[in-house]
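Write out structure tokens for Myosin motor domain-containing protein.
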Amino acid sequence: MQYLAVVDLLTKAQSEAKILKSETEDAVLASNPILESFGNAKTTRNDNSSRFGKFVELFFSDRDSHSVRITGAKIRTYLLERSRLIYQPESERNYHIFYQLCAAAPAAEKKRLSLDRWEAFHYLNQGRAGVVKTINDVHDFKDTQDALSTVGIPVESQWDIFKICAALLHLGNVKVEAAEEDGALDPSQSAISTDDAALEIFTTLLGINKNEFIHCVTKRQTTIRGDTMVTSLSVDLAKVTRDSVTKAIYTKLFDWLVRVINQDLKRESLPEQNFIGVLDIYGFEHFTVNSFEQFCINYANEKLQQEFTKHVFRLEQEEYVREGLENWTMIQFSDNQPCIDLIEGKVGILSMLDDKSKVQNTKDDEFIDGMNKILASPLQKYYIKAKFGNDAFTVKHYAVNVTYTAAGFIDKNKDSVSDEMKDVLKSSSSPFFCEIFSAEAAATEEPAYAQPDKARARRSTLKSKATLGSMFKTSLEELMETIRATEGHYIRCIKPNMAKAAFGFEGPAVLSQLKACGVLETIKISNEGFPSKLTYEEFAEGYFILINSDFWESKDKRDVCKRIISPHVDPSKYRFGNTKIFFKSGQIAFFDARRRERVIFLMNYGQKNIRRFLQRKKYKEALVAISDMQMHAQRYFAEKKLAKLRHEAAVRKAEEERKRVLAEQEAARKQNSVILLQSCVRRRVAVNRRQKLKQEAKNAEKNAERFKEKASNLESKVVSLAAESAAKRSEIQGLVEKTTSLSDQLQHATSALLAAETRIHALEVEVEALKKENHQLQAGRHLAVGPPESVQSGVSMAKSPSRATRRTDRAPSMGRSNSIAAREHHSDLQALRAENDSLKLMLESKNGANAPVAGPVGMKRVPTMTRGKSVYSGDIMQLAEREKQKNHAAEAGSSTTLHPSIQQRTSSMSESAKIQAHRVELLEREDTMVAVCEALIYMVQIPLPAEGKPLVKRDVHFAAHILGSFFVEELDLGMTVELHYLCFDVVDVFRNRALAGDNKHRVSMAFLISNACELLGIVCGLQEAESKKPNNRANMKILSKMRMELYSLLETDLIEAYLTNLKAEVIPLAAAALLETQEVEDFLIRDVKTAWFGTTATETHNDGLSKLNAFLVEIGGALRMYMVDKSIYQRIMMEVLQTVGITSFNELLQRKGFLSPNRAIQIDNNIHTVAGWYSLAGLDAAPALSHLREAVKIAVLRKTTTADIQAVYSVATQLNANQVHQLLYVCYSPSPAPDNVSLPVSLEFREVVRSHAIASKATDILSIEPVKQYQPLKVPNVTVIDKYWHPAVRLSEEIAGLGL
């Protein structure tokens, strides 16, 4: 099989060093030891005889791929010899697997399975041939285990298989005895002792109920018309039942193994792939006693012999007749079709056997009687009735007459166990045994052998169960169909002697085998016929070199072949057919030798000519040297002659120049005369055309008078439509005014809300300061009382030096006044909070926004903040200054009251405090934060995906998460001012990177937008976390301002800048993609442009859509690659598409006579194509292309009657009257149009459209502009920060440690 896989590849590349087997080939080869162990046995003629038929299909890869290999395989089996399980003739063995288990199973497993030597089992010792010299059971058992592992069966399942095999051996040792009846043994009733050791082991291994099994073996349950009868079986029938269970279980196990092998061998194979089938099936069998198995085997050989005869004899000779070979005499051969009809015919042996099998309690002699009555007639020559007795019959096969013993034919054909026994086996406690025995498992998998077709199986189940004979017949028919559909090659195995000895040859035995196989007739045809045949083209292509080259290009290949053959071969050794040449054996080799000699001659001839060429080259070089010497001698004389010739040439040139000037003057005079003549002719043509146009104008005036009456009828309808339109416009105007007033109220509410928030925050700060002062006054008063409070204060300061306890020297009266002021501010604060809540409710009711957003609706961008100059820096610096003054005052006051022990404890800081102080010092340095921002944003190298490996989240958002870790660090240290400065630095660096030219680079902008969005989510997550902490309003205010700054950066500096550049790039592509691309071949339009001298040129543009597609794919790919938020992705893609639609529509309005019906169909196809692209991305492209789609619909509508006017305006829901007028008067052209459509615009239709446009011209606009439907960004909170340092980030270890 490995040879079949690599032979074709070796013919193409013989220089390859080594070809290794693939895993699929190993699996195919591994199936062979498994099937041999479970399906082969020793017979009298062969030590490893296959007791089942096997058909292996090897699927191969495409031979054009230059790597031919086995991609998969499939195995089908036929007729496993089940009777061998329970009986073996003398010197024969059971299946190999049983002897392998007894010889090679480990001691522990032997003890668990209760295995002994093979002589101890009834199913193995009948043939007395358990040991064979040529078979090593120990080595074969290891190979079987390795093969089972190769096909994917785990070790646990392997020992489950061996456990079933061991159980069958013990079942054969179960003793069935006659039952006692009234103190005497009754052979008509059977019994099995419950103390039988073999029975106990069998039921334990398979996990079935012992008593139920005994009952099913010794009793028979019959149901007739609803009544159930239980009868005792005789000893012989009970043994048959026991053996039937053995055969049924082993058959299920064998079929399960074949299904598992097929599942593993499927691999990469497909049904349509090429395959090579290998059929390994039993040969013709003729023993002293021949039973049902030999009958089925010989029936299969009859079918195969018929196919072989048809292939070798009939088809070969039919080809001779078809090709018209002269003087050919047909060879007579025997046809075995009558014998096949005797076996499988409607009134054949198999059909009669099935009929007898359907009747209960039918005996074998009744089957013989039925065949003798029907088949034993003079007309049937292939059936022979037995001379004596009624227990055998003879069939005349193609090889030899075989007498079959009828004993057991019906039971073997049924080959089934009772339903009660099946229920007992299915109730096993072993899951593996239930899996292989259940019918459901066999139904879900592909059967190991061919089943009858579904219709036939359905009919058979209605009547009775399918018999073994019918199943074998159906599978054999499918095998024949497969063989006929392929190119067959036959291998005949001839046994040289019956003793199975080396170098022994028995002539009579070999001759009988050759006769049985039909080999002698094949040799006869080969001697008398012409086995080698080639077409004329193949022969001429292979051996044309043997004749003169004058005939190589001849189209008459038969004549070429005659010229090649006639000089070399005797006429009796070849024949000419109609299309082929037929040769006797050995002639092709003769011509190959002649061709090889011819090639050697031509090579020698070529070498001779090459040598001649080299010598001639040397001779020519000598001639060149001689000619050079002659040249120099002649040069001197030539130069003298040249001077004389130059003088004569100058005289001739002067004369020619004079003649040329005169000729040019004459040509100019003639050209002027021709131009004058052409102008006169053109003037005359123009005058005639002008007169014709005047006449057409007079006719048009007459037609206009005729149409005025129709126009007057339409005016009334137009007036009514205008009135309705005015009413609708007034209603729309009222809605617009209402919307404007609501928008003003919304803005007032928003401003009031912001003012309230500002006032609340100021009051909160002031209240907080008053509370702190009040607390400090009370703390000072307590410190004056005794040292415990001072000790506690000192400890607090030692734990948190940045937030030490503060004191003040103010009087107690100041504390009381502060508390009063605090209560007053608290009441004001509560009132402002109530007002703020009411404004928020009103704002939410107007906006209808229920989901939290990352920034305020309609918020203007906050100006860029630098250190000390931000719009918020005043509040922050004032708070910081007040805190600093309070800290100094607290330190001054507490220095006089601290206990000495506390001072000593606070002066000696721990090592961790020093490290913390060093981190704070680094974070306070401005150059540190600038270096971090530049390394993470401005100078970072944007990561790109590796080949076949997309980017992951940490490869994209590492900058945002590292900055977020710095935010968290400064927030935890209480460095709110530095945190605010860091946020401004980040925003500035993002903005500088975007303005440095990266806004035109799609990958860079996608990276910046994604990281800015992720950083905004981190700040929102921090704000949510801080909101859950008490007394944390300062941090909340800082985080709120940071969120607003990042929101403004993302919305204005990144997304809007990115969109501006994208729109500038997509505008030149819009019209070429949607208006000029023509992909519908039935409606192509040629844009004709007039050139000079009356010639024309046509242009078509069909690459616009592809360019637009490439542009959109590049944008979307960059946004998805860098994991931009879905809402931002949708906004960018939709605004780009809106720009495409609006640009295309405005361009269409400017093109005169461009919009024809054919053009409208092309544009509509382009719109559908673009909409399809967006639908694949989950986006709706309809709103962005609505104006262009309505223009297309108007172009294909009829435009003649008043009803058509209503249809046009019903379609134009997005277009105004002025735009419809522009489309129909300027852009529309009625031709070209489809062949079956005529769409001219009537005069009255034009007048109505023009009146509508004049009425609404003051309010309607012609060109449209993009409408920004601004929606606030919804950024999800990020609560987990990934502190991953990407290799692209370059920072010192000291600074990098701050963010970890």
